[in-house]
TrEMBL record:
Identification of the protein by name: Iron ABC transporter ATPase
Record SMART domains: AAA
Residues covered by the ABC transporter domain: 3-235
Gene3D superfamilies reported in the protein's UniProt record: P-loop containing nucleotide triphosphate hydrolases (3.40.50.300)
Keywords: ATP-binding, Nucleotide-binding, Transport
A Gene Ontology molecular function term of the record: ATP binding
InterPro entries linked to this entry: AAA+_ATPase, ABC_transporter-like_ATP-bd, ABC_transporter-like_CS, P-loop_NTPase
Taxonomic superkingdom: Bacteria
Length: 279
C-alpha cells in the first residue's frame, strides 16, 4: 500500500507543530522517521493513523484520502503500535492479540478459522507462544510491547505505523522486532530514536526538524555527519562496515580547545564563577 503525506500541517495548542510535510512511502517500503525530541514525529504519525486530522494537506492510502474514508475501512488498512498504549491488563495475551481482528469483524460476526489462524501466526511470530495464556498485567514492559505488536500484526494491515516500537525492549528483542517488521514486506512508517537501527533496517530515512521534513532518502544519503550535526546538535562519525552503518556520536563541542561537552560546561561554569567573583 502506498502512503502519501501531502503538505500536512498541524498546530497544537495554537502553535504550529508540522509545516507542510511531504513524504511518500512506496508499497512494501520501510521508512524510519527520525528527529530530535519534539520535532513532530508522533504528531505526523497521529495524522497517518487518524488520531489527529491535519489542519491542512492530506494523507492518502493508495491515492485515497484517508480522512475521507470510513473509519472502519481506515482501521482495516492500518496497524498501529504507539507509545504508552493502553492494554486491558486483565486479558490474556491470546485475548489481547485477538482484538487485532476487530476491524475485520461485523457486529454479529463470530471468529472464523481465518481469524484464529491470524492470531496464532501473530503470537508465534512475536515469540509469545509460551505466554499466550498469561495475563497481560503480569508481563514485563518489553513482553507487553510484543503483545501490542502481535495485536497489530493479527490485524493483517497493509500499512504499519510504529511509534518507537523498540521502547522497553532489550537489544535482542529490538533486533528481532525490526527484523520481523522488515520481513513482513508491507509498508511501514516507524519513528525511531536509534540512528543505528534506522540505518540498519529502514529502506529510507525521513528526518524531521522543528516540524519540517529536512531530508528523505536512503540511510547513507541522509544520515551524514553534517546532517546529523545540524539536526541533532551532536558531532558524528559514520562508519560503513560491510553492509552495516555505525555512528559514533558525542555532544557537540563549542569550546576552542575542542574538549568534550561536559568539560566545556564545567569550564563555562567555572569561568562564570570566576567572573562573578571578580565582580
Ligand atoms: N496536545 C498538545 N498541545 C500542545 N502542544 C503539543 C501537544 N502535543 C504535542 N505538543 C507539542 O508538539 C511538538 C511535537 O510533539 P511530538 O510528540 O509530535 O514530537 P516527537 O518528535 O514525537 O517527540 P519525542 O521524540 O519526544 O517523542 C512538541 O513541542 C510538543 O510539546
Amino acid at each position: 500500500m502506498r502512503l502519501d503525506i501531502d503538505a500536512v500541517s498541524v498546530a497544537l495548542g495554537g502553535r504550529p507543530v508540522l509545516h507542510e510535510v511531504d513524504l511518500t512511502v512506496h508499497p512494501g517500503q520501510f521508512t524510519a522517521l527520525v528527529g530530535p525530541n519534539g520535532s513532530g514525529k508522533s504528531t505526523l504519525l497521529r495524522a497517518v493513523y487518524r488520531a489527529r486530522r491535519p489542519d491542512a494537506g492530506a494523507v492518502r492510502l493508495d491515492g485515497r484520502d484517508l480522512w475521507a474514508m470510513p473509519a472502519a475501512e481506515a482501521a482495516r488498512h492500518t496497524g498501529v503500535l504507539m507509545q504508552e498504549q493502553h492494554t486491558g491488563f486483565e486479558f490474556t495475551v491470546a485475548e489481547t492479540v485477538a482484538l487485532g481482528r476487530t476491524p475485520h469483524l461485523g457486529l454479529f460476526d463470530r471468529f472464523t478459522r481465518a481469524d484464529r489462524a491470524a492470531v496464532d501466526e501473530a503470537v508465534e511470530r512475536t515469540g509469545l507462544t509460551p505466554y499466550r495464556d498469561r495475563r497481560v498485567g503480569e508481563l514485563s514492559g518489553g513482553e507487553r510491547q510484543r503483545v501490542l505488536l502481535a495485536r497489530a500484526l493479527a490485524q493483517q494491515p497493509r500499512l504499519l505505523v510504529l511509534d518507537e516500537p523498540t521502547n522497553h525492549l532489550d537489544i535482542r528483542h529490538q533486533l528481532d522486532i525490526l527484523e520481523l517488521v522488515r520481513d513482513l514486506g508491507i509498508t511501514v512508517l516507524a519513528a525511531l530514536h536509534s540512528l543505528d537501527l534506522a540505518a540498519c533496517y529502514a529502506d529510507t530515512v525521513a528526518v524531521l526538524r522543528a516540524g519540517r521534513l529536512v531530508g528523505h532518502g536512503r540511510p547513507e544519503e541522509v544520515l551524514t555527519p553534517t546532517a546529523i550535526a545540524e539536526v541533532f546538535d551532536v558531532d558524528a562519525t559514520v562508519h560503513h562496515d560491510g553492509g552495516a552503518t555505525r555512528f559514533a556520536l558525542r555532544p557537540r563541542c563549542v569550546c576552542p580547545e575542542q574538549l568534550c561537552h561536559w568539560s566545556c560546561r564545567t569550564r563555562r561554569a567555572a569561568a562564570l564563577t570566576e567572573t562573578t567573583d571578580v565582580r
